[in-house]
Amino acid sequence: MTLPSLTLLLAAPRGFCAGVDRAVKIVEEAILLHGAPVYVRHEIVHNRHVVEELRAKGAIFVEELDEIPDDGRPVIFSAHGVARSVVEEARRRNFFTLDATCPLVTKVHREAQRHDARGRHILLVGHRGHPEVIGTMGQLPDGAVTLVESAEAALTVTPPAGLPLAWTSQTTLSVDDTAAIVAVLADRFPDLVGPEKEDICYATSNRQAAVKAITGRGAELVIVVGAPYSSNSVRLAEVARTAGARAVLVQEPDELDLDALRGLATIGLTAGASAPESLVEAVIARLRGRFAVTVEQVTVAEERIEFRLPPALLRDRPAGKTEAAGPLASRTLAAD
C-alpha cells in the first residue's frame, strides 16, 4: 500500500532548554550521591514523563514543605523558583536544600529585589497562579508587586499612587503578547523602568521564532509536544495559531489524531522547553506509520547556553562516582 506523502517541518530549537536540563540533572545527581529518596517541592519541570522517570529513580514530589519529614534527606526546589518564605521555612527546619531554580528566573528575582530596594513599585507581566509568578512575587513584601496578565488589564491597572514604577515579566510568556502589554504600560506610565536585559528567556524566544518560521514555510498544522499546564508549551500553540496555522498540543504520541492530518501536505512539529526529545522522536515514528514522511529541519538559532550544577553537588561527589547517566542525564553542564 502506498502511504500518502507528508512533509514534516521540524522546528529547531525545540525541547529541553538549559534551565530544564540543569534542574533534571540536579535531581538525578542528588539521588546518585545521597541515595533515595530525595524530595522535590513541586514538579521539577512541567512534564509528566520527566517527573515519572525521576519518581521511578527515587524522587518524591510534594507541593509543600510540611509534607516532608525531618529525616535529613535532600530537598530540591523546582526550576520555577520559590518564594522567600519557602526558603526561610526550609532553613528553619534545617533542611539540606538544593536550588534547581533556572538561573534566568533567579535573574528576574534579583531584578525585582533591586527595583524594590530603589523604592519602585513593580508591575509583573505574567499569569496568575503560575509557580514562577508565585515565586517572583514572593521575593518581596505583600503589596510591592502588581500582576498584569493582559493588554486589556494593562489599560486599567492602578498601581499605588506616588511611587516610581518598574516592570518585569515571567520568563515563559509569548514574546508578542508581552511586547503589547509593555507598550500599553509604557504609554500610560512614561517613566516606567524596564529590565536591563529581556526577561523572557532565550529558549522561549527561540522556540517561538522557530514556530513562526515553520508556519512561514507553509505548515498548515503545528504539533506541539508538551503539557497543557506548561506555560511555554501553551504559548507555542498560541504562536502557531496567531501565525495562521492550526495547532494541537499533545503530551503523548497516542494523543495525536492522525485522521485529522488527512489531506494535509505540510505540517510542523516542535516541543516545549520541558519536553524530552524522545517524545518528539515517538511522534515522528507514529506519523511514519500512516504517512510517507519527509523531515526537514528548520533552524532559527543555535543554543549553546549551559548552566553549572550547584556547588554542593560538585563538592560532594564521592571519589569514583561519575555523573548520572540515562535518557534524562546524558548532557554536559558548563558555567553560569
Describe the structure.
Strands 10-9-11-1-12 form a five-stranded parallel sheet, sandwiched between helices. The protein has helices spanning 18-34, 48-57, 84-92, 103-117, 131-137, 151-156, 175-188, 202-216, 231-242, 277-288, 311-315, and strands at 5-12, 38-41, 59-62, 74-77, 96-99, 121-125, 145-148, 165-169, 221-225, 246-250, 266-271, 292-299. Helices cover 36% and strands 18% of the residues. The chain has three domains: 5-16 and 202-299, Cobalt-precorrin-4 Transmethylase, domain 1 (3-Layer(aba) Sandwich), CATH 3.40.1010; 18-102 and 306-315, 3-Layer(aba) Sandwich (Rossmann fold); 104-188, 3-Layer(aba) Sandwich (Cobalt-precorrin-4 Transmethylase, domain 1), CATH 3.40.1010.20. It is an alpha/beta fold and 336 residues long. The termini are far apart. It contains eleven helices and twelve strands.
Strand content: 15-25%
C-alpha-based Rg, rounded: 21 Å
Order of helices and strands: EHEHEEHEHEHEHEHHEHEEHEH
Number of domains: 3
Q: In a nutshell, what does this entry contain?
A:
The chain has three domains: 5-16 and 202-299, Cobalt-precorrin-4 Transmethylase, domain 1; 18-102 and 306-315, 3-Layer(aba) Sandwich (Rossmann fold), CATH 3.40.50; 104-188, 4-hydroxy-3-methylbut-2-enyl diphosphate reductase, catalytic domain (Cobalt-precorrin-4 Transmethylase, domain 1). It has eleven helices and twelve strands.
